[in-house]
Amino acid sequence: MDDSKRNLIWHGMFLFLLGLITGFLEPHFTNLRMGLAAHLEGVMNGIFLIALGAAWLEVRLTAPLKTAAYWGALYGAYANWLFTTLAAVFGTGALSPITAAGRVAEPWQESMVTGGFMSVGLVIVATAILVLWGLKKN
After folding, report:
1. Which of 55, 83, 84, 120 has the fewest CB atoms within 10 Å, counting from its CB?
2. pLDDT digit of tens for each residue in the chain (138 aa)?
């Protein structure tokens, strides 16, 4: 099995496990709703990485683009879980008015979580475009 394929599947299972553990920690977060979101992000992004790993050998890109897609997927999946977990711990509300219920954290915490979510959004969309391009028919 290709190492990158196996690594994506491994990271998917690891992130899935982190999501499950996050679920056990939900009652201890400042923002319980965001804690639930962090749990779901870990589980869902873990499944995403497992699915991507299963299809990885079908992604046809140049070596540099495939490397960018690989690292983009890992960054996007882990960072999405991490910044959602931090938002739950800090109780931030800038980018999550529905789950924050009027909460506001310290300005540096709001800035860190906002910047993190912005980076995740950009990276994961770029990664999805690369993977779709690599899966197109020749």
Report:
1. 55
2. 579 999 999 999 999 999 999 999 999 999 889 999 999 999 999 999 999 999 999 999 999 999 999 999 999 999 999 999 999 999 887 666 666 667 777 889 989 999 999 999 999 999 999 999 999 987
For residue 35, count CB atoms less than 10 angstroms from its CB and return exposed for 0-12, middle for 13-18, buried for 19 or more: buried
41-76 in b/e form (b: 16+ CB < 10 A) is bbbbbbbbbbebbeebeebebeeeebebbbebbbbb
The residues near 96 (Cβ < 8 Å, ≥ 6 apart) are: 34, 37, 87
Spans of all domains in the chain: 3-135
Question: CA-CA distance, 39 to 44, in Å (whole number)?
Answer: 9
Enter the pTM of the model: 0.92
